């Protein structure tokens, strides 16, 4: 079954171009031009991925992202923000509100489609190994249920945060470079986007509270998840 992608973009030409390329790759595409129609479309049919412009005519894409992340029904849907706002503070705000990826206009369609493919691969059916639990200290990662508990309390992670935590803990004690994380967790490799990794690690540390200190920064290289002593 083809993946269902919701495109929320108010620029007609860009909307048409992205829709055409998604359709050409075999995705089921629904495109809207404003926030209200986006929320209606999500209510009607839950997408596998949302491509969300920040600057919409009726409401901010950040508002939409915040609303989706606050609902149990939609908080796990992967969201890629597509916007002309490329300053670091804009990216950080987007990630803090729960965006899984962030691409700045203008961009190449080739890179865009690569990112879309990478994000959707992360939502494919999990392997048999994903039925296992990763547990240590007060942290429990249920891969099959896609849930994380800390001190017996469930904590909310975005799809990308969960994937990052899983990747680091499965390679506990081994340094993972930023490029490797981009390649394996995000599905692409670019020096321009290594800051994306840093932002996600910062958010993950904060959500993991006292266990967050186990994610060690290896200066000039990347990150390592250390086993609790």
Individual helix count: 8
The CATH class of the largest domain turns out to be Alpha Beta
Biggest sheet character? 5 strands, parallel
Count of structural domains = 2
CATH architecture of the largest domain: 3-Layer(aba) Sandwich
Specify the structural class: alpha/beta
The CATH homologous superfamily of the largest domain: Response regulator
Ends apart, CA distance between termini: 46 Å
Explain what this protein looks like in three dimensions.
It is a single chain. The chain is globular and about 50 Å long. Helix content is 39%, strand content 21%. It has 229 residues and is an alpha/beta fold. Helix 6 packs across helix 8 (194-208). The protein folds into two domains: 4-121, Response regulator (Rossmann fold); 128-225, Winged helix-like DNA-binding domain superfamily/Winged helix DNA-binding domain (Arc Repressor Mutant, subunit A, Orthogonal Bundle).
């Amino acid at each position: 079954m083809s993946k269902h992608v919701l495109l929320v973009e108010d620029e007609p030409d860009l909307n048409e171009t992205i829709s055409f390329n998604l359709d050409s790759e075999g995705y089921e595409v629904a495109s809207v031009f404003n926030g209200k129609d986006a929320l209606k479309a999500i209510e009607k049919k839950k997408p596998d991925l949302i491509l969300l412009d920040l600057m919409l005519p009726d409401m901010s894409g950040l508002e939409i992202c915040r609303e989706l992340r606050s609902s149990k029904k939609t908080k796990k849907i992967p969201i890629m923000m597509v916007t002309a706002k490329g300053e670091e503070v804009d990216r950080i705000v987007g990630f803090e509100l729960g965006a899984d990826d962030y691409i700045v206009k203008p961009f190449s369609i080739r890179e865009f489609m690569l990112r879309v493919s990478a994000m959707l691969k992360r939502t494919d059916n999990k392997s048999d190994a994903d039925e296992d639990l990763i547990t240590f200290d007060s942290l429990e990662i249920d891969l099959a249920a896609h849930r994380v508990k800390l001190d017996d309390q469930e904590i909310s992670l975005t799809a990308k945060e969960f994937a990052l935590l899983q990747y680091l803990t499965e390679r506990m004690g081994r340094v993972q470079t930023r490029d490797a994380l981009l390649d394996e967790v995000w599905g692409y490799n670019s020096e321009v986007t290594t800051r994306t990794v840093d932002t996600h690690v910062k958010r993950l540390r904060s959500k993991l509270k006292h266990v967050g200190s186990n994610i060690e920064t290896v200066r000039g290289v990347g990150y390592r998840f250390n086993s609790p002593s």
